[in-house]
Amino acid sequence: MEEHIPAELPDAAPVPTALPPGPTRRTVIAAMTTVGGAVAAGGSAVVTPLLGAEEAVAASAPSNGHLSLTVNGKRHTVMVDNRTSLLDLLRERLGLTGSKKGCNAGACGACTVLVDGRRVNSCLTLAVRLEGAEVTTIEGLADGDELHPLQEAFIEQDAFQCGFCTPGQIMSGVGCIQEGHTGSKAEIQEWMSGNLCRCGCYVKIVRAVEQSAGRG
Fold this sequence. Notes:
By secondary structure, this protein is α+β, with helices and mostly antiparallel strands.
């Protein structure tokens, strides 16, 4: 019988001792993000070069604008950053510091002013949106040496202790009276609930609003 001897197999290719370095997880994610963003934008994987330093600064710089408004009967025209709140405009640009910066989040009411006769939290109101508006702050209530009736009522009712919330309380009270929300103690409390008093003078504050509204 003829013996069949298997042919010799060719030598196997040597196994490399070290694989060439592949992409890292970070580069893979970066590439996928870039391509995905490009496809979503326009179906192309062409990557737009990054903005130069000067262009990036210009793109991120806030825009400014002219603003004309009347505050306490006086007309003002100012250049403001579009992010400026009415509260910061009043306090830092116009020197009207009666409106207080309490929470700066619209929760305490210490910054309450009247804009075209309506109560607003000035810390949440962008100044640039008030072109041509009429703003009244606590400084604009009195007529010379003659106090507003609600200011007099606050004094007579001793409706304050530390006084920090008082300007906002009075401005909110004036708005409450003008809006006709003084039919009862409960109604006043409801419509004044956005103004917080750290000293707890709520009973006397309500009395002052009642007195000024002709119910005292």
